[in-house]
Amino acid sequence: MSLWETLVSSKYPNTGQIPGPLPEFPLGNIRDLRGHSALEMSEMLKRTYGPYAIVWIANQPTVWLHDPDAILEVLSTKSSSFFKDEPLAAMRPGLGAPNAFTSNGAEWKETHRNSFLEDLRMPAWLVNQFEPARAFLIARFDRDLPIVDKPDLESWIYRLVFDLTSHMLLGRGVGDEAFDAYNRVTDALDVRMSTNLPLLPRGFARNKKKWFDAVADAASAAREEPSGTSMAHQLARYSRLLQHEQAGALGNMFPGGVFSVTATLLHLLTQADVLSDLGAAIPKAPSGYSDVVACVRLEQWIRESMRVAPPVPVFMRRVSAAPVEVGRFTLDPGVRVIIGTAPLHRDASHWPDPLAFKPDRWTEATLAENPFGSGYLFPFGRGPRTCQGQDVALFQIRMVMLMLLERSVQCAPPTSHRFYFGCAMPQGVRGTIR
Predict the structure, then answer these.
(1) Phi, psi for residue 365 in degrees, rounded to 5
(2) Residue 295's closest CA among 308, 274, 280?
(3) Which end is more exposed in the chain, N or C (fewer Cβ atoms within 10 Å of the end residue's Cβ)?
(4) Domain ranges, ordered by start, for the chain
(5) Nearest residue to 83 (alpha-carbon basis) of 92, 93, 74, 91
(6) How many Å apart are CA 29 and CA 58, to the nearest integer?
(7) Are 273 and 413 in contact (CB under 8 A)?
(8) Is the pTM of this model over 0.85?
(9) What CATH superfamily classification does 67-433 receive?
(10) How far is CA 164 from CA 170, 225, 433, in A?
């Protein structure tokens, strides 16, 4: 028996059956991981070892899953045998009220059951957001355009999405100071997530307070304006949450939504070969949100973008207190599980010519066979913990694309990608919007 087996892997007796690179004492597979992003690791492990692979980060085993049936077990049918711990511990200091994203077990069931999104009457609310969202976007475009040969178009798209989110959730913008405070908070949390170190910079508490105070002020104003349509107005009318809980819940919605929507929009805008084709197909004067949703060409484009470039490349879980069978293997308590989205979104056995951006592949039959949350298309996750903000994200992507494609848009591909706050963010997108 090797030193590694004696001192490390013997604590996890079932890991020896799972294929993966040979670990070295005492660092495991850290050398194999060095210099690779989560997306690169996911694709490399699937290509080399198949749908199951184990890597060791020092004495911690991590099983990478790329088997749709096994993933369904982890995220849905056997989800009670797993819990979320990463990146929740890193994110928790920057979040407001407890919510379904950051909790587990009985607490998760309670927060999910009492989620303010359940109070929102989401479909009707989104329909009513069409006019105010369109008015905001028209005003922003009139103010900022033309944008000519901007070397970092991602910064403008990011602020556009952030401010659209503010108007939808809070009924108004929050201003530059709160925006800066928000970014300082998310920067600090991203460092915690990427280093796995419990560090917080000087001024973190001050910036968090400034950000959530701005959200609380907007939520308080909404209670004095009963005719408003924002999410804060809806919560003031219908929610069972206390006032400070409403502010915390609204503030918590920004990070995941703003970054993932920005990433998807940037990927869509850099598909120059089909951009003009899509522009010719969109409705020129939609009378409501139903007209936007009914635009088949736009929907094909969005699905294909989220297939080729899922903004969230991995989902993570950890095995709870008892061994659990997942697919062909038994996973020991404490084993971390990483689920890669891109290798299945680009699986050649399911998607012909999988790396090509081909919106036409989304026929009526393909749409029916591959809804969001299915085995080969799950950008928002699968099972009971699927992203609760999915419909809001899709609304924002549709509305922004609708407005952009009424203009002349030219964008070069990104020069790089940055893994930020759990999302693969395009960087160095040079573009012109007139």
Answers:
(1) -70, -40
(2) 280
(3) N
(4) 67-433
(5) 74
(6) 7
(7) no
(8) yes
(9) Cytochrome P450 (1.10.630.10)
(10) 10, 19, 18
